[in-house]
Structures are given as structure tokens and as C-alpha cells.
Amino acid sequence: MIEISNAELSVMQVVWQRQPLSANDVIAGLGDDNDWHEKTVKTLLNRLVSKGALGFNKDGRAYLYYPLITEQDYQLQQSRSFVDRLFAGKVAPLVAGFASQNKLKPDDVQQLKQLIADWEQEQNHD
Amino acid sequence: MIEISNAELSVMQVVWQRQPLSANDVIAGLGDDNDWHEKTVKTLLNRLVSKGALGFNKDGRAYLYYPLITEQDYQLQQSRSFVDRLFAGKVAPLVAGFASQNKLKPDDVQQLKQLIADWEQEQNHD
DNA sequence: GCATGTTGATTACATCTGTAATAGTATGTG
DNA sequence: CACATACTATTACAGATGTAATCAACATGC
Q1: Per 3-state DSSP, what percentage of chain B is helix, strand, and coil (rounded to 5)?
Q2: Mutation test of the interface with chain A: which of B85, B98, B101, B123, choosing the one with the most A Cβ atoms within 10 A?
Q3: What is the pLDDT of residues A74-121, one digit of tens each?
Q4: At A89, which CATH number?
Q5: Is any atom of strand D within 7 angstroms of residue B22's beta carbon?
């Protein structure tokens, strides 16, 4: 299981958005969210390559990086591990926390209802 | 914001369950989940005290530890930060991931339905 | 062709983490 | 009282992380 640190994740997210891209593209893509030094970003790219999270092709002098794992897979893996650790694997209590903090927005709820409907559908026809 | 590492979290979870308790109680409480050396657990307790996550009262020679932050607060804080980082603050996509992996269990769904019902109720009467 | 700048590679360094071992201190036992 | 015990406090040490600086290689403008 590839472990991606917090800082590295920010880089991955840029690469997931638009790929492949150069180190400079990544630096630009990070924008104002992070104002890391250029060298810092290069280091993170390097580490991500070492970890097997990114691959690259040479484009003359520069590299063009692309993800080796999808954002979806990463999200799933992390979600499961997070919910396992903090909520004993149950997702409902997490959502309950959001609800209690008024962090649920109408379209969140709409999507949840849809999910549940689909899930129930699924239960029936098999 | 107090940062609790993974290993430290396991200790916190024991203390949240039953408090206050001694270092030995914690060691016993960790049970088979972790088979850390006694010294390791003491180190973790120490760090948690330094971080302000645990307090203690002396009980003769030994300390009795108790949490300075509630599990609820920690869960909320971590959930928000997790969902912000990976899902741009939207909780529904996280649940969708669970659904897609068949990780939703009937009682999860039941609780979610209840949450939504409550939420809608809330929306109406204010 | 040579100085320069650009790009990746290597090295740096403090802090945090996981995982203990050792030191210091108080306490109970004979 | 002296010693073994039982705790906590301090120290250790390697790997991960955040955050860069320096090095090396190569292309480019004079």
C-alpha cells in the first residue's frame, strides 16, 4: 500500500487533475494553495516517483509526470482506513458528525438519498 | 489543533473507553490489538500528556490518566479535515465509495436514512 | 566554445513517529 | 536501614516528512 503524505497529496491532486504535466506545470497548478519553493515541489515529485505513485516520460530536458494510481483508488483506500480507524468501519457515525455540525448541504443530502435508493434497489434484485 | 499519531490514537481509544486508568490498565486494554512493549506504551502516554491530549492525577506511585479531549471532538475534527482534504468537503462522495465497494451494511443504511430524515425535519421547522 | 540558466539528482536538516532501553526516584519488604 | 520493585522521566535511534539548498548535466545565447 503506497503511503502518500499530506504535502505529497497536494502534488498528486494537481497531477490527477491534468496529466501528464511537467514539474513547472505542477508548481503553477499548486497556485496559491501552497507557496512552496520550487525545490520543495521537485523533492515531492521525486519522492512520489520513488514511492511508485507517479511515473514520467522524458520530454527533452524535462519530465512529464503522470499518476500510477487513480484518485478513486486512493480515495477508497484512504476512506476505508480512516473509517476503520476512527469509526470501527461504520460510515454512518461519520455522517452523523457532519450532520451535527450542520455540515450537510442540500445537495449532499440529495446525493445520499440517491445512494441509499440505489443500494436498496441493489439489495432487492439479487 | 492537537495532532495525534496513529499509535497514539490506539492509546487514546483505550482511555476514552474507560477513564481514568493507569498505564497498566492501558497496556491491558490494548490487549492483543497491539503487542507493544510496556515501555512503548509508556512513551506514548508521555507524548500524549506533552501534547495536551491526556491529563493525569497521581495515585500514589502511579498516574491515573484521563482524556483532555473527547472522542467526539476528535472524530469531528478529523472527519472534517479528512473530507476537506480528499473530497473537497463533501461527505456524499465518500459514502458513495463505500457503497461501490459493498461496504454499506443494512444498519449503516438504516442510520443514514434516519439521519436524512432528521435533517429534513430540521430544515422544515426553522 | 563558454558562461548561464534550467532541470532533475543528491544531500541537508529539524521534527515527528514507532519502538524501545536506560536512568532516576519513590516505595514496600525483610 | 538496604535492597529490590515499580513507576515515571530521559535518552536512543532509524525512518518519514516538511522544506529546501547544492550538485551535476545539458541546452542556449552570445
Answers
A1: 60, 10, 30
A2: B98
A3: 999 999 999 999 999 999 999 999 999 888 989 999 999 999 999 999
A4: 1.10.4040
A5: yes
Residue nearest to nucleotide D18 (CA to C1'): A7
- Amino acid occupying residue A5: S
Whether residue A126 is predicted with pLDDT greater than 80 in this model: the reply is no
A18 belongs to a structural domain: yes
Whether residues B96 and B64 fall in one domain: no
Tens digits of residue pLDDT in B65-77: 999 999 999 999 9
Q: Which nucleotide is nearest to A65 (CA to C1')?
A: C8
The nucleotides of chain C lying under 7 Å from a protein CB are 6-12, 16-22, 26-28
**Does B24 share its domain with B62?**
yes
Q: Nearest-CA residue to the C1' of D9?
A: B46
User: Is strand D in 7 Å reach of the CB of B78?
Assistant: no
| Residues B80 and B25 placed together within one structural domain of the fold | yes
pLDDT digits (tens, 9 = 90+) for A20-74: 999 999 999 998 778 899 999 999 999 999 999 999 999 888 999 999 999 999 9
User: What are the Cα distances from residue B111, in Å, to B27, B84, B93, B99, B108?
Assistant: 34, 23, 17, 14, 5
